[in-house]
TrEMBL record:
It comes from Aspergillus bertholletiae. Pfam families: p450. The chain crosses the membrane at residues 101-130. Its cofactor is heme. Gene3D superfamilies: Cytochrome P450. PROSITE patterns: CYTOCHROME_P450. Belongs to the cytochrome P450 family. GO terms for biological process: secondary metabolic process. InterPro entries: Cyt_P450, Cyt_P450_CS, Cyt_P450_E_grp-IV, Cyt_P450_sf. This is Cytochrome P450. One of its GO terms (molecular function) is heme binding.
């Protein structure tokens, strides 16, 4: 059902058949191995922020929020996904950016704007650039996957494969999970590279969207207290003269709550949990409605997130909402906890497996920027735009900022 809703049958046909357990790569391998790549990740993120936002402490700069977040997130993310030296390979960077752009454009145009009846006519032509960029990426990544597969096979012993001496990146972790899955096509380097690109490359945009929504929310919140508290909290993550530790990200409780509040107010989709009624006789809902076979059903996440029976003053941005009490910075609900009242990462078996990694990325960006930059408030919250079921961030909004000169 989600395949039809987002036109995935055109942008990545047959992807669900190829799935060798990507949830395991993100849920298990990334969680276990992230400490090994953490220092490199933070260094990359800091350089990306320093270069994109600038180091000048004397003058203010005005930048587009969405494209600025795009530059920062994609660079830090590439370090974890591709490792070194591939994350600096100009050809790979170019084609992955073009691939991600076309993927997003097709998600909107083919999946949301074009009536489904026209998809078979236009779909096959419109996805040609997407296929082209994916083909170039597969050609470049195939030998890398082959090498990792061979290395892991060499190490093979019993049912587990050790990746300890291999490059700590998502290519290694995906290869390990693929090998353990035992599926024949998951062990073919070309097919593995293909699925890796389809499953991982487009997801960075959800982080960029959430970061854009966060800055739009916090800068229009008129809460100096929240800024002071976020900055104070960030100091614990970047103690002067010491490298930040992964443990310290987990203590950024206010950033965690403020991000959950952003995702509550502006989830990436207006609906979630899509299903299609499959039984021939249809189904009857608990309140007696008969839904015939083929009906599409989903949960109205946006309406739930803005229901005042669930959240008091639902339209207000309250960065402390998910902390233990007013102005407290202790946690009440964690950003990554999925509940039937918080559907920012969906729910259940198909809930977002990348959410912990996304929370590391987002909280690190917030901590480093709050500590090292001051921002001019926005007079009003830049508006998001509903495109079909997608809740698009304010892509033209700008923020003004200046380096503070605080020790980082
Ligand atoms: C703040 C950032 C993110 C948000 C808000 C988000 C949200 C979501 C949501 C709502 C879904 C469910 C879609 C549906 O089936 O209805 C989902 C699925 C998924 N997400 Fe995320 N996501 C984020 C970041 C990431 C990242 C960084 C990754 C990978 C590194 C990722 C990987 C995935 C994958 C693979 C699925 C498909 C899961 C499945 O179908 O079983 N996500 N995400």
């Amino acid at each position: 059902m989600i395949i039809k809703q987002f036109a995935f049958d055109y942008t990545m046909p047959g992807a669900h058949m190829r799935n060798f357990g990507f949830e395991k790569v993100l849920g298990k391998e990334l969680a276990r191995n992230f400490p090994r790549v953490y220092c490199a990740f933070i260094q990359e993120l800091q350089s990306a922020i320093d270069e994109t936002l600038g180091l000048d402490t004397t003058s203010w700069r005005t930048l587009n929020i969405y494209s600025t977040m795009g530059k920062i997130v994609s660079r830090a993310n590439r370090r974890v996904v591709l490792g070194e030296p591939l994350c600096r390979d100009k050809e790979i960077i170019y084609h992955s950016q073009r691939y991600t752009w076309w993927f997003g454009a097709m998600l909107i145009f083919l999946g949301q704007l074009l009536p489904p009846i026209f998809r078979p006519i236009f779909g096959i032509f419109l996805v040609i650039p997407l296929k082209y960029h994916r083909r170039v990426l597969v050609r470049r990544l195939r030998p890398v996957f082959k090498e990792r597969l061979d290395l892991l096979r060499e190490k093979e012993g019993g049912s587990t494969h050790s990746t300890d001496e291999m490059p700590p990146d998502m290519i290694t972790w995906s290869t390990k999970v693929a090998l353990e899955s035992g599926k024949a096509e998951a062990q073919d380097p070309g097919s593995l590279a293909h699925q890796f690109i389809e499953s991982i490359f487009p997801t960075a945009d959800t982080v960029v969207t959430t970061a854009t929504n966060f800055f739009s929310d916090i800068l229009s919140s008129k809460s100096d207290q929240a800024f002071d508290d976020l900055r104070e909290e960030a100091r614990s993550m970047f103690p002067p003269g010491e490298p930040p530790s992964l443990q310290s990200i987990k203590k950024l409780h206010l950033a965690d709550s403020a991000l959950r509040e952003t995702l509550r107010r502006s989830p990436i989709g207006i609906y979630s949990l899509f299903h299609e009624v499959m039984p021939k006789e249809g189904v009857v809902t608990p309140n007696g409605h008969h839904l015939p076979q083929g009906t599409w059903i989903s949960v109205p996440s946006m309406a739930i997130h803005h229901d005042e029976r669930v959240y008091s003053e639902p339209d207000r941005y309250d960065p402390y909402r998910f902390t233990a009490g007013t102005n407290s910075t202790k946690p009440k609900s964690m950003l990554t906890t999925m509940t039937d009242e918080f559907l920012g990462f969906s729910l259940g078996d198909h809930g977002c497996p990348g959410r912990i990694y996304a929370s590391y990325l987002l909280k690190s960006i917030i901590a480093y920027t709050m500590l090292n930059y001051e921002f001019r408030p926005l007079s009003t919250r830049p508006a998001n735009r509903a495109i079909g079921i997608i809740y698009a961030p304010p892509t033209t909004a700008k923020f003004s900022l200046r380096r503070t000169g605080a020790a980082s």
